[in-house]
Amino acid sequence: MSLSAECCSDKTGDRGGGGGALAQQRRLIRGLLVWATLLTLGLITSITLHCIHRESPAPDLQQDSRNLSQPQQYMDINLMSFSPNWSEKEMVELLQWKTVDLSFINITEQLNVKTEGLYFLYLQVTLDPRMKGNYTITLQSNNRNVILKGLLNESKHSTGFMGKGIMLNSKESLNVTCKPKAKIWTNETYLGVIKLR
Hints:
It is a single chain. This protein has 197 residues and is of the alpha+beta class. 25% of the residues lie in helices and 32% in strands. The strands form 2 sheets. Strands 2, 4, 5, 7, 8 and 10 form a 6-stranded antiparallel sheet that branches. The N and C termini lie far apart (95 Å).
C-alpha cells in the first residue's frame, strides 16, 4: 500500500510544491536566533556595567581610608564583647568572662552595669559534644530574674544566637549560669552587650 504524491506532500507541509511552510519555519527560526542573540548581548552588557560601575564611597569614608595608619577608636558604637575566662576542661556552673574594655560594665564575680540605659544583650553558649543530659543556660539579673534562657540536650549542644533588648539600672548585676555544671567550648561561646542609649 503506497501513498499518493498529493497525500505525501500534504503530510510534510509542502502544499503545491512551493515549500511555503518550510520557508516560514526558517524565518521563525532565524527570528528566534536574532532575538536570543539580542537578549544575550543585553545580558552581557548589563553584567559588564554592573561590574564596572561601582558607587564611590561617601566622602567621610574616603577620608577615613586615607588615615589607615592612625589607630581608630570606635566611640559611636557602644559595644562590649566578652570572651570566656575558664578552661574547656573545667566543669562550670557560673560562667566567668573577660574583656579588653570596661566602658559601661565592670567585671567582678558578676557583670556590674555602670550606667542606666537601654541595652541589647546577646549570648551563645556551646557545650562540649561529649556532654550528655539536659542543661539550662540562663542570663539573669539580680533585679529581674531570667533575661535569656536556652535549653540544651544531647542532640542540641548550642543555644544558638540569643538576644534581647532591655532597660538596665546602674549597679544592676548580670550573670550567666549553666545548670547542671558542664564542660563548655570556649571558642563557640560569647557574650555581647550593646548600649543603645
